[in-house]
Amino acid sequence: MGYIWTSIALATLVVMGLLRLRLIDARNEESSWQDLIKQAGISQGFYKPELVQGLPEPAQRYFNFSISPGSPLVPAVEIEMDGELGLGSIDEPKYKPMKAHQILAPPHGFLWRVRVGLVRGSDGVSKNNSWTRFWLFGLFPVVRVSDDQDHHRSAFGRVIAEGAFWTPATLMPSARVNWEAVDDNTARAVVNFGAFEQAVDITVLQSGQPHQVVIQRWSNENSSREYKLQPFGGTLGDFRRFGGYMLPTSVEGGNHFGTDDYFPFYRAKVTDIRLLGDTS
Fold it and tell me: Is the pTM of this model over 0.85?
């Protein structure tokens, strides 16, 4: 009988410890969310086509399609999305429905809260750290990575890639952002922030609508499980107007983009985008 009570007591302590850890994660997420809003600040001026004169021609088309003249240069967005995540491989994708809520404030960071079946958690990055934390039933940790420089560098790549399609104003030319020509329909933005530098290639249609976004991402999603630079990217579609911005609501992407190993594990359908820092 004493053994039973001891087991119950130990199980109770374990559950209480897990609940406390889950509560700490929730508090840290909320704090990070608010910090990103503060770091992004307010909109810095309003868009005019003259501001991008002198950039590679595809970059000019990109900005003129994405931002209407007179629109505030929004530094961050809040995104609601659903869609699918592939939890398997190219041969067996194992797509599962997802629902997510995200704040994106390039280059400062992002916080992506997502639920996939019985698993929920978040990916996030700020200037000083990054993390991936997922829980089964909201109680049992199944993935927990943080305070890792390789992970941080990889997460920063995601910030810049997603900024190219959901926060175009954050890629306006500045002390942090320089542009280079690639070809007649592709331009490259190079973003420097703290210890990191990330280039992103944006391919546009003749109208300027961004069609494809690709980065060389620091990642260990490969057969050797070693961190190295490899192509990561995807395609954009179903553009809708949000305030003065024309933004994609359908995004498909994954690792090894443009190669035979490409696996589009991320299929997002945006249901709403809220502009943050809007001065209009």
Answer: yes
